[in-house]
Amino acid sequence: MAYHKSALKRARQNEDRRLRNKSVKTSVKNMVKEVRLVAGESSKEAGVKKLDTAKSKIDKAAKKGVIHKKTASRKISRLSKLINAISA
Fold first, then answer.
1. Are the CB atoms for 59 and 72 separated by under 8 Å?
2. What 3-state class would DSSP assign to 9?
3. Residue 85 in contact with residue 40, Cβ under 8 Å?
4. Quick count: other Cβ atoms within 10 Å of Cβ 38?
5. How many angstroms separate the CA atoms of 40 and 60, rounded?
6. For residue 79, what are the domain limits?
7. φ and ψ at 66, to 5 degrees?
8. First to last CA, the chain
9. What is the pLDDT of residues 3-60, one digit of tens each?
10. What does the alpha-carbon distance between residue 61 and residue 28 come to, in Å, rounded to a whole number?
11. Which residue intervals of the chain are DSSP H helices?
12. Is residue 17 assigned to a domain?
């Protein structure tokens, strides 16, 4: 266990960040899952609406550094491709 004052503070900060990152990652995963479900069952309009909210959440996660920006780009690209395939 940490002993020095600075090490104790660093441990506290790391724990706070870990919990915050976990929350953001979980919400991103849930949004991706929702988009995939909507893509499988409903119209393109509903899919586009869900996709927009998912894009926003994914971009914010990348901006905060929770996920890598290329990972965010890849997720958005795959979801967009899925939604665009509905009408085609």
1. yes
2. helix
3. no
4. 21
5. 26
6. 27-87
7. -70, -40
8. 58
9. 999 999 999 999 999 999 999 999 999 999 999 999 988 788 888 999 999 999 999 9
10. 8
11. 5-41, 44-64, 69-87
12. no
Identify whether 40 is part of a domain. yes
Place of tokens 């919990």: 19
Amino acid at 32: V
**What is the three-class DSSP state of 3?**
coil
Decide: residue 44, CB within 10 A, 0-12 exposed, 13-18 middle, 19+ buried. Answer: middle
Domain count across the chain: 1
Give the closest residue to 60 by CA, choosing from 12, 22, 24.
Answer: 24
Structural domain includes residue 3: no
Residue 4 region by backbone torsions, left for phi larger than 0, else alpha for psi between -120 and 50, else beta = beta
pLDDT for residue 71 = 97
User: Tokens for 76?
Assistant: 């958005």
Q: Is 3 exposed, middle or buried (0-12, 13-18, 19+ CB in 10 A)?
A: exposed
Task: Round to whole Å and give the CA distance between 10 and 84.
Answer: 45
